[in-house]
Amino acid sequence: MIIDTHCHLDNKQYYDDIDIVIQRALEDGVKGFLIPGADFEDLPQAIKLAEKYDEVFFAVGIHPYDIEQYDESIMEKYINHPKCIAVGECGLDYYRLPEDEEEKKENIAKQKEVFISQVEFAKKVKKPLIIHIRDASDDSKQILIDYNAKEVGGVLHCYNASEHLLPLSEHNFYFGIGGVLTFKNAKKLVEILPKIPQDKLLLETDGPYLTPHPFRGKRNEPAYTNYVADKISELLEISKEEVEKITVNNTISLFKQFSTII
Predict the structure, then answer these.
(1) Pairing outcome for strands 129-134 and 84-93
(2) Arithmetic mean of pLDDT, 129-151
């Protein structure tokens, strides 16, 4: 079996056929789903799905692109829902910074402030983090270490193949591997995959984004985690069944509530 630890099933791209998407994944061996919290607008749909399907869980958090939305009182409203199992996706993203130098500094400072706030919130509620990092490995790593995020641990979602982040495996952090691994230009991730401790590997799609080969360019969905598992199997020279066993065990180690669906 497979658990998709990062799929935006609350995204509008799934509104017309979400039940079919989930059923297709279940039939293809994907037996668990975690919807990350990127903004507050999609939370009602995430909760609706989590309450409808035993296999679906959700997180609450604010993506770096949506930091102006951040409101801890809203986080507190949802964090104790029985199907809410994590905080995030939160983190730092320096890919789309303003061109003006002063605005850039302000944006980075605000991103750090909101990220640190969510790390502290996760520690307060004792739930693991879902971390988004893009072009910000140094600052992200420093914050996670300085603010003792290892107390709750978490996953580096869509791990960006930065070798600089590998030591976070010793700080209770896991590495989410998705469709990017199957891309022809993913040479860096292909090279670094064997360096990731196997007891820290997780599977994800980031659906509806980052669709794996051979469906690149189309909408991603949880069933396609099978193609990621196949690629990991090929690169690590272990069976797909072993990949599934390792990643499911790792998922349960981090997100313990998934043990209820096994």
Answers:
(1) parallel
(2) 98
DSSP state of 211: P
Question: Is the distance from CB of 44 to CB of 65 less than 8 angstroms?
Answer: no
Average pLDDT value over all residues in the chain: 97
Instruction: Write the CB contacts of 111 (distance below 8 Å, at least 6 apart in sequence).
Output: 64, 67, 92, 93
Q: Provide the pLDDT confidence category of residue 262 given band limits of 50, 70 and 90.
A: confident
CB 77 within 8 A of CB 54: no
Pick the closest to residue 131 from 187, 80, 173 (CA basis): 173
CA distance 19 to 52: 10
Rounded distance, CA 60 to CA 130, Å? 10
Handedness of CA 81, 257, 194, 204 (dihedral sign): negative
- At 101 the pLDDT is 96
Report yes or no: 90 and 115 within 8 Å, Cβ to Cβ.
Answer: yes
Contacts of 160 (CB under 8 A, 6+ apart): 133, 134, 137
With H, G, I as helix, E, B as strand and everything else as coil, classify residue 173.
strand
Strand order in the sheet with 129-134: 2-4, 30-35, 56-60, 84-93, 129-134, 154-157, 173-177, 201-203
Pairing of strands 84-93, 56-60: parallel
39 conformational bin, left if phi > 0, alpha if psi -120 to 50, beta if neither: beta
